[in-house]
Amino acid sequence: MNLYKKNLEKLIKNNAYSLEFERDSCGVGFVASLDGKARREVVENGIEALKAVWHRGAVAKDGSGDGAGIHLEISKPFFKEQIQSSGHQYNEKNQLCIGMIFLPRNDYGAQETCRTIVEHELLSNDFNVFCWRQVPVRPKVLGTKANDTRPEIEQVIFTPNITIDTEDLERKLFTIRKRVEKKITEAQLKDFYISSLSSRSIIYKGMFLAQNLSDFYPDLEDKRFISRFSIFHQRYSTNTFPSWELAQPFRIVAHNGEINTLKGNVSWMKTHEKELSLVCIRILMI
């Protein structure tokens, strides 16, 4: 505790921290492997760290949360087993890609249309789709609202037919995601969202409490799920209501909220005070 106070005083003295931050931001942080090797402890520590910032988000009367999640490296030992379970074989030399996708839960026709659009884009861009995997979940840990709005959560597991540079592959997947989203919009399909589509990482998130992340997603309890990093996030909902897609981390970043809506509104008003005063003068002159 003394060390905490000492470090806190040092941060405040050097203008790196303010006590005001304690009431205006989400809870966000990361855990990383210093030697660059994937290990189970990184995942477990990330989950435990997320639980430690549970207080940065609100809790509804029914037990629903503002949203929480974790961004991890794709674990080949874990997903290799999932591919084999689907009746396919995975060559370790192949690049493994995974899409974490939210689908409309109660509209099976729309679900199939969404899958068809995703698969068409992947196949037409020289990818081989291993399988669609229904992600195991435990809905009992959710509040009523969170469960009522819960999407069907599935993973599409695939690989490029040719070896491609990782950066080029990620750019290609970005383009595919944009095309898919455009076609989904044109088809007027709702409740579709791509949490992540990558050869590097995957995002597990949702509208549950921070302490329920691994309770909701049993995947994260599997000892084969390893990573070199974990970026965790507890949302602090301010000017938008909680929803499954607005839970973080997002595909690229995990940010600490709307950076204080009140402060933003005050600053906005200050920048417009001169204009408003001129408007008032004109009105009085009329």
Protein model, in words:
By secondary structure, this protein is α+β, with helices and mostly antiparallel strands. The protein has a single domain, classed as Glutamine Phosphoribosylpyrophosphate, subunit 1, domain 1 (4-Layer Sandwich). Helices cover 37% and strands 19% of the residues. It is built from eight helices and eight strands. It has a four-stranded antiparallel beta sheet with strand order 1-8-2-7, covered by helices on one side. A four-stranded antiparallel beta sheet has the order 4-5-3-6, with helices on both faces. Helix 4 runs antiparallel to helix 6. It is globular and about 75 Å long.
What brief labels describe this structure?
286 residues; alpha+beta; Glutamine Phosphoribosylpyrophosphate, subunit 1, domain 1; four-stranded antiparallel beta sheet; 8 helices; 8 strands
**Rg (CA only):** 22 Å
CATH topology descriptor: Glutamine Phosphoribosylpyrophosphate, subunit 1, domain 1
Count every helix, treating DSSP H or I runs of 4 or more residues as helices: 8
- What portion of residues belong to β-strands? 15-25%
The CATH homologous superfamily is named: Aminohydrolase, N-terminal nucleophile (Ntn) domain
In helices, the fraction of residues equals: 25-40%
Low-confidence stretches: none
| Class by SSE composition | alpha+beta
Summarize the structure.
The chain is α+β, with helices and mostly antiparallel strands. The chain has one domain: 4-Layer Sandwich (Glutamine Phosphoribosylpyrophosphate, subunit 1, domain 1).
